[in-house]
Amino acid sequence: MADNKAQVKDTGHVWDGIKELDNPCPRWWLNSLWLSGLLVVVYFILYPSLPLINDSTKGLLGWTQINEYKADLAEVEKIRKPFEDKLAAMSVNEILTDQKMLNYAIGSSKVLFGDNCAACHGTGGAPAEGAGYPNLTDDDWLYGGSINEIQMSIAKGRTGSMPAHAKLLKAEEVDQLVKFVVNSSNGTATEAGKALYTSKGCFACHGADAKGVKMMGSANLTDRIWRFSGDEEQIRHTILHGVNDGTDTETRVAVMPAWSERLAVILQLTADAIADDEDPTEIDWEDELEGDESERLTETEIKKLAVYVHQFGGGQ
Ligand code: HEC
Ligand code: HEC
Which of 21, 172, 245, 313 is buried most, with the most CB atoms less than 10 Å from its CB? Predict the structure, then answer.
């Protein structure tokens, strides 16, 4: 070693007795340097590189990020297409009994729900406490928890309405009704409370048993699941100001937007035909659907979402 060193040129620099030699760089290192220089040129020719004023040089391969994204997307669409086609031809009830399609529908609904529904109903269907939106994960349904009812809720939208009672009731009647509602929720309603509830017309919407009527989306007053709140002041507020009563500025607002009026009409007319013992395949849709074209989500998307909401745990 010592001999070897002696043959190497030195730079003439000496620090603290250490001599700086002038060895050539290792060959492998130099080769990599040249190779990386060459790669720069190759990339430069093949890919977009030099920025110009409004654009950049394109490169021989014509590669762009957006093209790569589109190619990937086309790949995904190709895998999804058979499922989407099959789903389009199935009813929600059929999807529920087909495990493979059910998994697909649920898997592809997460983003759909996140984009369109979670803002109100919360991620996973459970809204923030006191947000004023119904929880979709419990067993308590305003408009029914069957798959068909859920599908209808989404397609048609829902707007429950209860008139403001501030001008219709005396102060002590309001007190008694608040008490009746609280008592009903814990099974201690009195005959007198029930009689007032009936004589003031509450039963017409909430039902003789106060358990709510699905057709109207009137809340069940006998459980401990609250549409708005079980707090006495909040119950009083609902009774005084109602829900969606345009004549009262303090009314509660509860609007579930419609996602496809078109699908809502199709579902309704099909259900009516079946109820009347008629053949729904004979309906002249071209005639019936005129003017009901508004669609914010497609029929297949709504089916997926109905299935998704149904499996949150509260579906019936
Ligand atoms: C702007 C807020 C809002 C958005 C967005 C929204 N909802 Fe709703 N949703 C509501 C409200 C409010 C109600 C209750 C209506 C009422 O009280 O009459 C409701 C009710 C429902 C019901 C009926 C619940 C029951 O107890 O019967 C279902 C099912 C539902 N929504 C699903 C969805 C799905 C799925 C989406 C996304 C496509 C969605 N909602 C988007 C506000 C919203
Ligand atoms: C025209 C129909 C109608 C009448 C009459 C009516 N309600 Fe309601 N009520 C509703 C509907 C619909 C809802 C649910 C609104 C929603 O969620 O969109 C509701 C909600 C409520 C709630 C909220 C329950 C909760 O879980 O937060 C209370 C309390 C209530 N009603 C009490 C009464 C009382 C007491 C009377 C009689 C004075 C009455 N209602 C009369 C339709 C009616």
Answer: 245
Q: Whose CA is nearest to atom 13 of ligand 1?
A: 256
Q: Name the residue with tokens 């119950």.
A: 235
Q: pTM score, two decimals?
A: 0.85
What distance in Å separates the CA atoms of residue 275 and residue 259, rounded to the nearest whole number?
25
User: In whole angstroms, what separates CA 11 from the centre of its chain?
Assistant: 72
Q: How many CA atoms lie within 13 A of 164 on its CB side?
A: 15
Q: Which CATH architecture has domain 171-241?
A: Orthogonal Bundle (1.10)
Asked whether 208 lines ligand 1 (CB < 6 A), one says no
Instruction: Report CA(267)–ligand 1 centroid distance (Å).
Output: 18
* DSSP classification of residue 314: T
Q: Where in the chain is the domain with CATH 1.10.760.10?
A: 76-158+257-310, 171-241
Coil, helix or strand for 295?
strand
* C-alpha–C-alpha distance, residues 266 and 152, integer Å: 10
Check if the beta carbon of residue 180 is closer than 8 Å to that of residue 196: yes
Domain 76-158+257-310 top-level CATH class: mainly alpha
Pinpoint the alpha helices (H) of 118-170: 118-121, 147-156
